[in-house]
């Protein structure tokens, strides 16, 4: 990477990575806190407890995955483009070309594997955090 592009090549795809992180965090926060607020405070369908924390964790994993999957796919595609023999001018050019050639659902490739990887982490972390603090 260094010999072919120098310092700029080391940061290829950093923009989509930052966007992905923001989208992931937004989905996680909206999913967890939104579920807890909607079900316990606003509608009073569930009491604040372990069951609500588990449900909120699953919703958080779902939304974090749904929000960040397109940016994750874009980052991976843009970073791997030179090895694939494809040339993109920038991440937005990559986005436009993939959208035009393969359609919008392409950005959700690998979604289920990503979700299944995140669910155990969230289902462990959020309830444990709530119970201990």
UniProtKB/TrEMBL annotation:
Location relative to the cell: Membrane
Q: Mention any Pfam family matching this sequence.
A: Mito_carr
The protein's UniProt keywords, in alphabetical order, are: Membrane, Repeat, Transmembrane, Transmembrane helix, Transport
Q: Which domain of life is it from?
A: Eukaryota
Membrane-crossing segments per the record: 51-69, 110-129
Q: Does the keyword Membrane apply?
A: yes
Q: Which InterPro entries does UniProt cross-reference here?
A: MCP_dom_sf, MCP_transmembrane, Mito_Metabolite_Transporter
Membrane-related topology note: Multi-pass membrane protein
Major place of residence = membrane
Q: Which GO terms describe its cellular component?
A: membrane
Which PANTHER family does the entry mention? MITOCHONDRIAL DICARBOXYLATE CARRIER-RELATED (PTHR45618)
Family to which the UniProt record says this protein belongs: Belongs to the mitochondrial carrier (TC 2.A.29) family.
Protein name per UniProt: ADP,ATP carrier protein
Q: Which organism is it from?
A: Polarella glacialis (Dinoflagellate)
